[in-house]
Amino acid sequence: MARSMFPALVVRPAEPSDHAVFARLFTDVATEERIPSAAVFEHERMATTRVAENEGVPVGYVYFRPMAEILHLGELVTLPKARRRGVARALMSAVVT
Question: Among the four residues 54, 56, 70, 83, which has the most C-beta atoms within 10 Å?
Answer without folding.
Answer: 54
